[in-house]
Structure formats: structure tokens, C-alpha cells
What does this fold into?
Amino acid sequence: MQMLSFLHAFNSFPLAELEVGHHFYWQLGNLKIHGQVFLTSWFVIAILVLASLAATKSSQRIPSGIQNLMEYALEFIRDLAKNQLGEKEYRPWVPFIGTLFLFIFVSNWSGALIPWKLIKLPSGELAAPTNDINTTVALALLTSLAYFYAGFSKRGLGYFKKYIEPTPVLLPIAILEDFTKPLSLSFRLFGNILADELVVAVLVLLVPLFIPLPVMALGLFTSAIQALVFATLAGAYIHEAMEGHGGEEHEEH
It folds into this structure.
């Protein structure tokens, strides 16, 4: 929930000024809040919270229904984290990677399944939270903070060695890499979700009956893949920040 609170705070101070179309804002004094992203984000958070409560309200030894679905999702997330971080390191990072995956997954599918545009606003229109660049940048920055924290907590000041290894000449490239990671994460997710919604909207206007259906089904598949790619890369970056510790420890012994 702390991660989602950061996401909301970030949307209150939009640093990425890339916008497509008109948007709906709340003005609270001198604070300008991205209202449409708040509304759809709260909707996604409510779905996740209600699903969690329903799955744990009356747990059964042999799961069924929503409990079975949530346990399958948890097992999938555990396997995802284990594959990226290894057997010894993955457990503390399951909540972070799982929250990233589930929030992006439900957000993406909400854009593909829910007719947000039918809900009228004073200005702008509703869309999936990941349809807004501020949301994807916030998620990417959280991932950056996570792998910096992972590197410092695991390797201490030795984390800085990566910037000058194997030669200090590569220092500018190593620093540039830290900027390109969140940029690629945020723009990949934003671009794919925006493009998918635009394609479906255009096809619905041009051919409103059968042709958009396969495209919508494909959109559901690609939306799920985008959530998987984001969470997988987050795990890979965290592992990359921590790697080398075992080798250094072995050398010390």
C-alpha cells in the first residue's frame, strides 16, 4: 500500500508533461491533482483489496473459487520472483514484485474490458491508470528505488564498484544506464497500453460489430504480457543490483 500511496502522490505532481488529449483535474488550493488517474487507480485498488478479503475471509484447506484464484496468483508471483532473484533472495521481494504485477495487470485489463469512456466527466475522459505516463513513470521510479535499496542493503558501499568496473572509463555509461532503465520501463508500458486502446477505439468507430473483438482479445493478451514484462524486469534489475555479493563474500572467506 505504501507503493500505491507513492503512486498517488506522484500523480499529484506530474513531472512527465507528455499528455494525449484533455484531462480531468481536481484543484485543491494551489495543488493540481490528476483526478481521472486517481479515480481509476482507486477502482483498481478496490478490486485487489476486495479480492484479497474475499479469498481470506473463510479459507479452506482445499481451496476453491476466489481463494483458489488468489492462491494461484500468489504461487505464480512466487515463481516469478524466484526465477529472477534465486532461491535464497526472492522471499523479501515477493510483496513488491507481486504488487507491481497485480496493479499493472488489473489496470491494463480494466482499460480493455471496462468502457471507461462512457462515463462522462466535466473535461477529459477516464482510461486505465497505465494509460497515463505519470502512472508508468511513478511505477518505474519505484522500481529504481527498489533496486538501489537492494544493492545498498546487500553490498553496502561496495555497490558503487559497479560504476567503475571493469574500468573507470565506463562510469558515464553506467550512470546513463540508471536513467535509461526507468525510462524504458515507463515508456514501454505507457506506449503499448495507449496504442492498444487507440486501435480498439478506431476499429469500433469504423467497424463496430465483429472485427474489434479479435483485436480486443489480443489486447487482453498483450496487456497481461506487459504486466509480466514489467514485473520480470523489476526482478531482474533487483537481482543485478545484488549480484556479486556472494562472490565478494567467498573471496573474504
